[in-house]
Amino acid sequence: MTKIKTERMELRLTPEEKDNLIKRAAEARMSMSKYLLALSEQKKIIVVEDLSEFIRQLIKIGTNVNQVALVANTYRSVSEKQIKTLNENLIQVQQLIRKLIYIIRNTNDEIKV
Question: Are 82 and 71 in contact (CB under 8 A)?
Fold first, then answer.
């Protein structure tokens, strides 16, 4: 259930402060309202650059895992090479996720990946 927002606040800023807030909210892909609320609640704001490459890599790895599963289900066996490939793919996924977790945990302000 969404709460209806009826209250307004006025804020005085220098032109430079205003421009900086507008720029940072845009970089975070957030409305000014959501951005300021997130800052007021001391939430971490994560800005991920080139997320499409990360997603592409995960999809590629997922495709490889599915291919191994298909072979295993069809022939009821999997070669050592396929198991090795699967393990390598899973290690890559773990490394990517660990990198993101490390960055998120060790940043107190906005981050760019």
Answer: yes
Question: How far from chain centre, in Å, is Cα 49?
Answer: 9
Does this model's pTM top 0.70? My answer is no
- Smallest CA-to-CA distance from 93 within 66, 67, 55 is with 55
88 contact partners, CB below 8 Å, separation of at least 6:
none
Interatomic CA distance for residues 76 and 96, integer angstroms: 31
Q: Model confidence over 58-103: pLDDT tens digits?
A: 788 888 778 878 888 888 777 888 788 888 888 888 887 787 777 6
Tokens standing for residue 5? 């927002």
